[in-house]
Every structure is written in structure tokens, then in C-alpha cells.
Fold this sequence. Notes:
Blueprint: H1 7-20, H2 32-71, H3 76-85, H4 92-101, H5 103-113
Helix pairs in contact: 1-2, 2-4, 4-5
Amino acid sequence: MPRSVNHVAARARRKKVLKLAKGNFGSRKNVWTVAKNTVEKGLQYAYRDRKTKKRNFRALWIQRINAAARIHGMSYSQFMGKIHASNVDINRKVLADLAMNNPAAFEAILNSVK
């Protein structure tokens, strides 16, 4: 009895991986074994960095709020403490955006919690 091989599915599987490897340098984009390793590693990084991205943005927002608060003579921790104490329900993302793009509104919030 002849050996049964499903070339259609195997080809489709390889094409899918090679499509994901598009844009890589040299043999990483067209050699099956190298491309497969590259794509697997890339997907691992993508999974990991979706979580890291949230961390990085929170850190950026905190830096921006801190810089804007210090212009008005208050540290980040003092500012956030007073915001929570006065029950102003506004998140760091919005505060950072106001600090960057609308300093007058940020100053108004800061004066209201002082």
C-alpha cells in the first residue's frame, strides 16, 4: 500500500509560517526551518511584550504627570495622594494627556486638589 501524504495541508501550513516571516533578513524569510524558528520566537516576544507595553505606558504617564506637577511645586506622590483624598476620579492616562496637551486644564485640576 502506498504512503499517504497530505501535501495540500503541509504546503498551506508552511505558507502560513513563511508569510509571517516576511520582512526578515536573508534565509530567515524563505528557508522553512529557519523561518519557523524565527516566527515562533517572534510570537513569544509579541505575547510577552503585550504585557510589557502596559507597564511602559504607565511609567511614561507617571513621568509626564510628575514633570507637570513639579512645574507647579508639587511632587507626583503628593499630587496623587491629594487627588485620591479629594475623590477626583481621573486616571493617569488622561492626566498625562492633559499635562502634555492642555496645561491649563492640568493646572486647574492641580489647584482644585490643593
